[in-house]
Amino acid sequence: MLPHELPPPEAGPRAGDPADALAQARRENATLRESLLRAQGALAAIADGVAVTDPAGRITSLNPVATHLTGWTGTEALARNISEVVRLVDAGGLGVDPLREGFRDRDDVMSLVRHDGHVILVDGAVAEIHDDARQLLGYILTFRNVTAATRLARELSWHANHDPLTGLLNRRVLEARLQRALDSAGRLGCRHALLYLDLDRFKAVNDSGGHVAGDELLRQLAMALRRQLREGDTLARIGGDEFAALLENTDVQQAAAVAHKLIEAVEQFRFAWQGFGYRLGASAGLIEFSGEGLEAEDVIEAADRMCYVAKESGRGRVATDVLRAVRPQHPTAAVRPVPATGRSVRSAGPASERRS
């Protein structure tokens, strides 16, 4: 070979060789398959249900949790509209479009109607899928079963707000609503009333029938008292045999009429236990309040004092008063609650019906 001559080129694949293109395609296909398997593995490992759709909302895949929650298999769900598979219903019983109306807020909880008709509670989120050019490729919907958690939260909330024995509201809720009523009285000049009801002769039931009898009596009596009040009135059990009713937008005369109704309901109530019959009585303290500067505890204490006055006056009576907040002239002095009128004690019925 002369010095200026080049060696002949080695034999190899030519540009556009079909074998080379096939090999490249196989490598790309293997890479895509690996990516798909990794994505499927990730979806299967997610603890939430995941549904993927095309831009029209037709399902392209469900992960195992989604098939379990909806009751649809992946094959059954494929190409169906997501509203058919993930059937969401709001609190009013209306159907919800999962992609456009569902889970707008993070705390949204909706009912999911499964393929077999059973209903569970779910929360979730919706996201759009875009390509690099911002073209819509589809949607991804994630959701999870919160039935047990929601029921537990509701039970805890119920127990936090209710008396476990009678099912009536408890003192904490009464105080909160009473403070709200005080605020509205100060802002709007409304008049409200608080009624404090104490049972008479309840101790005899506990002494003769035991606490089980006393508990059952309170449960039954609570329902009888609730029937005497308006829908918006607040009835709470605040002690062993003590109840309180917040009557909003009511003056003292109207509230006194309600107090007499409650006392009459107690006196007409008959309780039977193990062959014995029991009759009760009740006394009530009633406070009308309005204006600023009062606290919930001020009103409760005033109503409690009036209830004591009613008992001392012969029982079966209603003692009323009006509570106002007095603002002192000195700016640093505290606002103090004082009765605004003389006390009034009224019998709830004929004296012959009063028994100690």
Write structural notes for this entry.
- By secondary structure, this protein is α+β, with helices and mostly antiparallel strands.
- It folds into 2 domains: 45-152, PAS domain (Beta-Lactamase, 2-Layer Sandwich); 162-353, Reverse transcriptase/Diguanylate cyclase domain (Alpha-Beta Plaits), CATH 3.30.70.270.
- Helix content is 38%, strand content 26%.
- Strand 11 and strand 12 (276-279) form a beta hairpin.
- The longest helix has 28 residues, at 18-45.
- It is elongated, with a radius of gyration of 36 Å.
SSE diagram, text form:
Blueprint lengths: L17 H28 L3 E5 L5 E4 L1 H7 L3 H4 L4 H4 L1 E3 L5 E2 L13 E4 L5 E12 L5 E10 L1 H15 L9 H18 L3 E9 L1 H8 L1 H16 L7 E4 L4 E6 L4 H17 L1 E4 L2 E4 L1 E9 L6 H17 L4 E10 L9 E4 L4 E4 L9
Helix pairs in contact: 6-10, 7-8
Based on the model shown, name its key terms.
7-stranded mixed beta sheet, 356 residues, 10 helices, alpha+beta, 7-stranded antiparallel beta sheet, disordered C terminus, Alpha-Beta Plaits, single chain, 2 domains, Beta-Lactamase, 16 strands
